[in-house]
Amino acid sequence: MARNRRRTAALPLRKRSDLSTATTASQPASLAAAELDCYREGMPPARKLASYQDVLDAPANMLAQVIHGVLHLSPRPANRHSVATSALGDELGLPFKRGRGGPGGWILLDEPELHLGADILVPDMAGWRKERMAKVPNDAFITLAPDWVAEVLSPSTAKYDRTDKLDIYARESVKWAWLIDPVGRTLEALRHDGEHWTLLGTWRDDARFRAEPFEAIEFELAMLWDDMADPAENDTENDD
Fold it and tell me: Which pTM was predicted?
């Protein structure tokens, strides 16, 4: 005896081309396109990208940055971080900002907020040649990419400083970057050649050095650490 079989109507398959145009009043075209990209990659739809409003809403005691659409919050840096940044500004300011004992011609700022496309970055220092930015705009942030940046590394931010942020600086044609490690007491100077970052040199401890774009002056690296207590004397300091 033949078994009874339940017959169901076949549902029509939707073409991928249909997905690209299938939008409703509650689903704008941009969202549909994003979901289509996720469909093609076999991933769930992308999450909402962080914005400037997320930076404004961040706690006042945290440093907020948007890196590749993700909000990054980090605590204020340890004292050794501030010592290195302040000392670097002291050394560069007179010869390159004021032109005293050096060529001048630079605008140098501590922790400027940079809006570079959808990314919002706060390097520890940044510099613009005055032929590109003669005066600092009277705004809360700067949209013109700098010529040079310095990142003082900390345990919580080093991996982003060395990867994602360097990628963004390269995309925005920032030509030079210095990476300073106040724990290891090293400085790395990098130059972007249009395609890749090239390591110009690495110095440590109390070395004397010249590095682009400030090679007109020879510096003593020890000036970045001279005011720091020996780590062995204080092991309770915040690692950030």
Answer: 0.78
Neighbours of 30 (CB within 10 A): 9
How far is residue 235's CA from residue 64's CA, in Å, rounded to a whole number? Answer: 27
Q: Which amino acid is at 17?
A: S
Q: Are 126 and 148 spatial neighbours (Cβ–Cβ below 8 Å)?
A: yes
Angle at 56 between CA 53 and CA 60, to 5 degrees: 155
User: Which of 186, 189, 188, 159 has its CA nearest to residue 175?
Assistant: 189
Please give the Cα distance from 86 to 219 (Å, whole number): 15
**Tens-digit pLDDT profile for residues 19-58:** 333 333 334 444 444 444 544 455 555 578 999 999 999 9
Tokens of 109: 């700022």
Phi-psi region of 105 (alpha: psi -120 to 50; beta: other; left: phi over 0): left
Is 160 in contact with 152 (CB distance < 8 Å)? no
- Between CA 23 and CA 34 the distance in angstroms is 12
